[in-house]
Specification:
Blueprint (H helix, E strand, L loop, with lengths): L22 H34 L2 E2 L7 E2 L3 H8 L2 H33 L5 H14 L3 H10 L5 H6 L8 H14 L2 H12 L3 H9 L4 H29 L3 H6 L13 H11 L3 H25 L13
Antiparallel strand pairs: 1-2
């Protein structure tokens, strides 16, 4: 038999206690659930291979036998005993100095032309962007080699012989393939140009500034953040160039190592000569160099990049 306790008149039953919620913890948990595919992918496909590569850079590893620890021998051999390594460094720096300024200049020139167009802007923007999608493929690089080879289009037009077989011209042919892929920076430049207020050009015109003066005094300062972004991005990509040089030189870096860029020599050491430890050391040196160059660009940007929201910059 059960008994019940009577509730006095005028009193209400106390509400049942509810568990305390932690909305912040719940939001963090949901965020980690959605981020888990990226975290897993970054850990397995990026961080873990980087850690393995760093370890292999201190070993003698030929892809078939277990790695043997050699300490800093790969690095000392790279800097003091390998003349082809320094030739690849010089070739890569030369390529970057040629390709990046030409590509950015052409991209900005085409963006300025598209900005002033009244009709067909969407069509031409897509047409100029198409090489950026196609140029990185091996098939386009092989076509490029045929164009600049003996008896190719350039030889027939100018009678200069095949560029890919001339040490002084082969690297230029590779650089021009990169310059031809100016679509991505062009689109970014075009977006930046469209954000410049028209009032600035009107005020400059009232002051008597011509088109060139408007470009120097208005367009370049207002576009400097976009220019800096493209410069950093294209410089990083140029240091890692591989496919154009590999295709144009038929995988040999010739003639006379004139197209032996850094990543191509890294590929040769790692997968052709089976010196994977040495190639891993080269990869880490490249990573450090790109980091230093990027840091220098960021440091020097303080003197020439203008941000409209920061008048004192």
């Amino acid at each position: 038999m059960t008994t019940t306790t009577a509730i006095p008149a005028g009193k209400k039953r106390a509400p049942a206690a509810t568990p305390k919620r932690h909305p912040k913890r719940e939001r963090e948990g949901a965020a980690w659930v959605f981020l888990s595919p990226w975290v897993l992918g970054a850990s397995v496909l990026t961080l873990l291979p980087m850690a393995v590569s760093l370890y292999l850079s201190f070993t003698d590893y030929n892809l078939f036998d277990p790695p043997h620890w050699v300490g800093l021998r790969n690095y000392t051999q790279m800097f003091t005993e390998d003349p082809r390594y320094w030739r690849s460094v010089l070739t890569t720096v030369t390529y970057v100095v040629i390709a990046v300024p030409l590509q950015l200049a052409l991209a900005l020139l085409v963006a300025l032309a598209l900005k002033s167009m009244k009709r067909g802007k969407a069509f031409y923007r897509s047409a100029f962007y198409a090489p950026s999608l196609l140029g990185a493929s091996m098939s386009i690089a092989l076509v490029w080699r045929a164009v600049f080879n003996d008896g190719g289009t350039v030889d027939n037009l100018f009678g200069t012989g095949g560029w890919v077989n001339r040490p002084g011209w082969a690297l230029l042919a590779v650089a021009l393939l990169t310059v031809w892929q100016f679509g991505a920076p062009m689109v970014i430049f075009l977006a930046g140009l469209q954000q410049i207020p028209a009032e600035l050009y009107e005020a400059a015109a009232v002051d008597g500034a011509g088109r060139w003066r408007q470009f120097v005094s208005v367009t370049v300062p207002m576009l400097s953040p976009v220019l800096f972004f493209n410069l950093v991005l294209q410089t990083i990509q140029a240091f890692q160039v591989f496919t154009p040089a590999f295709a144009v030189s038929a995988g040999k870096g010739g003639p006379a190592d004139s197209t032996l860029v850094y990543t191509m020599y890294l590929y040769d050491r790692g997968f052709v000569a089976s010196h994977m430890g040495y190639a891993s050391a080269m990869a880490w040196v490249l990573l450090l160099v790109i980091g230093v160059v990027t840091a220098v660009l960021f440091r020097t940007s303080r003197s020439w990049v203008f941000y409209a929201s920061e008048g004192d910059r």
